[in-house]
Write a structure and sequence with these properties.
Elements (H helix, E strand, L loop, with lengths): L1 H4 L4 E5 L27 H9 L8 E5 L4 H7 L5
Parallel strand pairs: 1-2
Length: 79
């Protein structure tokens, strides 16, 4: 696994118009920031699922400028 792990990258897409889970998800609070199954957001759950497979420095978050502060609060360990 470690041999494979050094070759993998992960992209997590974090953005959108907040229309798919409307009325719970809105443009100012899209689904990745919602806590649907418990105390963790979908973004946090996704990050934690990927972490055992991909080194943290190879995980990239793709978003729009309006969500960068919220993502930094949600995942402070990601630069």
């Amino acid at each position: 696994m470690e041999e494979t792990k050094s070759h993998l990258f992960a992209l997590i897409f974090c953005g959108g118009g907040g229309t798919r889970l409307w009325p719970f998800s809105r443009e100012d609070r899209p689904k990745q920031f919602l806590k649907i199954k418990g105390s963790k957001s979908l973004l946090r759950e996704t990050f934690e699922r990927i972490l055992p497979v991909v080194d943290m420095e190879r995980i990239y978050l793709v978003t729009v400028p309006g969500y960068t502060d919220e993502i930094a609060q949600e995942l402070p360990e990601v630069s």
